[in-house]
User: What shape does this take?
Amino acid sequence: MTKFFIKWWVDTAKIPDTPQETGKFYWPMFEMIKADLSAGKFTDWGQFSNGREGYAISELSESEIFADMLKWTPVVQFEVLPVLSIEQTMEARK
Assistant: This one.
């Protein structure tokens, strides 16, 4: 099964200006992420310490990832890269 590294970043132009509004903006997104983790859509998720970017690891198919990412647009943008295991890498390098 293919594993994907998903780098994500928030379009800062879409984020509210005040801390109170920002909290209200992000909290539902956090709940959606927790639900995706519980459902197995992501095997890992993290935010970089700059507060605007992060990553997720998924083993969904390309089309499933695409469909799932649509719910985050246009607020969040993504770069999705397939990842090889060490075994796959060694086999390819033979």
